[in-house]
Design brief:
Elements (H helix, E strand, L loop, with lengths): L3 E6 L6 H10 L7 E6 L4 H12 L2 E8 L2 E7 L4
Protein name: SirA family protein
Pfam family, one: TusA
Family: Belongs to the sulfur carrier protein TusA family.
């Protein structure tokens, strides 16, 4: 069974959202899902780029009320 986690990265600026996401995913298994909630618009390019480099997949991106939610499916790395 796969797990689903959420990570609150509001009010953090680049590069912290990517670093915190990377650190959190290290403790997850392939197929698990992580949703990050951010306020830094830079994550819209930084997180997908990091995911492509590291073998993870962005499955959804939502923007509302100055917040960005990005859902990542953990890959095999």
């Amino acid at each position: 069974m796969f797990s689903t986690d959420q990570l609150d990265l509001r009010r953090m600026l680049c590069p912290l959202p990517v670093i915190r996401t990377q650190d959190h995913i290290k403790g997850m298994s392939p197929g698990d899902t992580l949703t990050i909630v951010c306020t830094d618009p830079g994550v819209l390019t930084d997180i997908p780029t990091w995911c492509r480099i590291n073998g993870h997949e962005v499955t959804s991106t939502e923007e509302a009320d100055y917040e960005i939610k990005i859902t990542i499916q953990v890959g095999a790395e």
